[in-house]
Amino acid sequence: MFGPETAPATALPHPRRAAAGDSFLFALARAVLLLALVSAAVFTATELLPGDAADLRASAGADEEQIRHLRQELGLDTEPWRRYLDWVSALLTGDLGTSLVNGRPVADTLAQRLPATLALVAGALAFAAPASLALAWWAGTTRRGRRISTAVLTGGAAVPMAVTAAALAALFSGALGLVPPVSLLPPGASPWHHPDLLFLPVLSMALPTAFFGASLLAGAVADTVRLPHVADARRRGVPSWQIALVDVLPFLLAPFVRVTAVVAGGLIAAAAVVETLFGYPGVGSLLVSAISSRDLPVVQATAVLAAAVVLAGLLLGDLVAALTEPARGRTA
Amino acid sequence: MIRLLVPLSLAAVAALVLGGGWLAPYDPTSTAGAPWQPPNPAHLLGTDALGRDVWSRVLAGGGRLLTVSVAAALCASALGIAGGLVAGWSGGPLARLLTACADFLLALPSLLLALVAAIALPWQTAVVVATVCGGAPLTLRVVRDAVRTIRTSGYVEAALLRGETTASVLLREVFPAMRGLVSADLGLRLVVAIQVCAALGVLGLGATPPAPDWALMLRENMTGVATNPWAVAAPAIALGATTVLFALAAQLSFHEHEDRRPNRAGQEEKPHA
Which residues cross the membrane (chain A) (predicted)? Predict the structure, then answer.
């Protein structure tokens, strides 16, 4: 996943030869199918757990008869596929169920926590996207010491995000005492009003992401600067900033958008790690705590929502990339 | 120089991780002094919340994590190689089906797969499932492309004309030719497996306390980061250095494979199609 020289060919959704509209329909169908598969996988995983919602919800002294009654009431005595369809159709109509732990509607909890996670992801992307382009530019255009720059990108992308987070916490709040080590956001408060709480989580997410994005992009940069028209412009004596701006950057736009989409999908999942580590109340920490407490409706809704956001991001990336791709076939 | 250094440091890391527990000056799971001591002569890296020796826990904390990651990476790599050999060798609808399945799985982040798997499965299995789903498709594509190139090379055609069976050609001619590529790929799968392992550990879905485990230590010691930063920094450095070392070893192995490839200049990179 991190080999810069193999990565562009392997890890990225590749440009399709067909018209942009066709490829978008294809990508849309793929995303919908994947989402259906994810929902089935999540449902199966929760089905595999020993004990069901009735066992979990029954009061301590309930006997067999009461549990059987509760199971009937909750509709748990029907076949799994029927329950799956019921659950999916409820999801589609916006009914996400209620938490087994606190009895609150899952939709409310999600709506309350989503902005916090989006703030994290947006902040991390705002830093990581330009940084990855700059790093990729450096790695893709160095002539000498190419392997060293590749090694820096590979090594940087390999560091687990938990390690970055812990190291930054040890440095900034342990050794330097600049920011609080935990990011406990008061409930209902906007994350944007507490930049000191956002600092550690955003930086921990952005750093490894920048290296990972750069390792995906470096190949595209190296390919682009080797294109004939770039060499030609150089021979004509065009200033290098103009070559970068006019001859190289437009060709990088499509891969850049795709890489940003892939990286943003990773960030949604990675938010779970960073939020849990810093005690930041977002969707990721919600998913993790729901998994630990076996709060199945919350797990199901959150996991499917996370997958939907990831797939929507990839789809958007595909669409924008298809629209911005310079048509090499047309001009050549 | 580097070619000697990387295998040596890999061996050192493996020895330290597997045998570190015996070197530990204190029992990694029992109290050895007052909690949250900063580094001092008795405790090189200080103590944690329960007064356990951080240095001892760091020494003992990599074994399980690395064992699970290696197992997961081997599974992902083996499945991917098998799929890639079949897809690259046979071509046709089977290859297209395998590639489509692989493409399909790639869209989801490994960590999300691991979290879904961790709902019902033990964490070790969840790591294997996530690494296989997220990694095997990449291996498949790399191996498939390599097999396609090798398949049309002279020595493979010669072996086929000699009347050797497909299995023996694959085993004796094709596989040795992509040894470097496969080991590089295995290294990258291992890196992702360690990342997933670390994530699950930090999330509290991995190793259970009081086991010494680098990822679990990060989680446990975050509360005391202001009093003893080394309780967090030391496992972070151990985990980070191990992962980076594996990634660099994979990179080196890939470069060696590239260097050995015949008429490299003549083979332009294929368009990403």
Answer: 24-45, 118-139, 151-178, 198-222, 243-261, 267-291, 303-323
Q: In angstroms, rounded to a whole number, what is the distance separating the alpha carbons of residues B163 and A320?
A: 52
**Nearest chain A Cα distance for residue B158, angstroms:** 29
Provide the token pair at A242.
């103009």
Instruction: Identify whether the C-beta of residue A229 lies closer than 8 Å to the C-beta of residue A247.
Output: yes
Nearest to B217 by CA among A286, A162, A178: A162
CA distance A258 to A246: 20
Tell me the nearest-neighbour CA distance from B171 into chain A, angstroms: 24
> Which residues of chain A, if any, have pLDDT below 70?
1-22, 50-61, 74-76, 181-189, 191, 325-332
- How large is the average pLDDT for residues B6-20? 84
**Total CB pairs under 8 A between chain A and B:** 205
In one-letter notation, the amino acid at residue B94 is L
Minimum-distance CB partner of A6 among B117, B142, B243 = B142
Residue B222 tokens read as 């975050």
Optimal mutation site among B105, B218, B246, B267, interface A, most CBs of chain A within 10 A: B218
Rounded alpha-carbon distances, angstroms, from residue B169 to A324, B137, B159, B256? 45, 24, 7, 23
Nearest alpha carbon to residue A161 among A52, A20, A273, A70: A273
Q: Do A167 and B236 touch (CB under 8 A)?
A: yes
Instruction: Tell me the per-residue pLDDT of B152-207, one tens digit each, with 9 for 90 and over.
Output: 888 888 888 888 888 888 888 888 888 888 988 999 999 999 999 999 999 988 88
ipTM: 0.84
- CB A74: neighbour CB atoms within 10 A? 13
Rg (CA), chain B: 22
Identify the three-state secondary structure at position B53: strand
What are the pLDDT digits (tens) for A258-290? 888 888 888 888 899 999 988 888 899 999 988
> Which residues from A are below 8 Å from B246, CB to CB?
158
Cβ of A288 within 8 Å of Cβ of B237? The answer is: no
The CA distance from A273 to B22, in Å, is 31
Q: Which residues are paired to A98 by β-bridges? A: A105
Global model pTM greater than 0.80: yes
Sign of the torsion formed by the C-alpha atoms of B255, B256, B259 and B262 = negative
**Helices A161-169 and B214-221, axial angle in degrees (round to 10):** 40
pLDDT of residue B268: 41
Q: Work out the average pLDDT over B6-12.
A: 84
Amino acid at A230: V
d(CA A206, CA A203): 5
For B150, the token pair is 């090798």
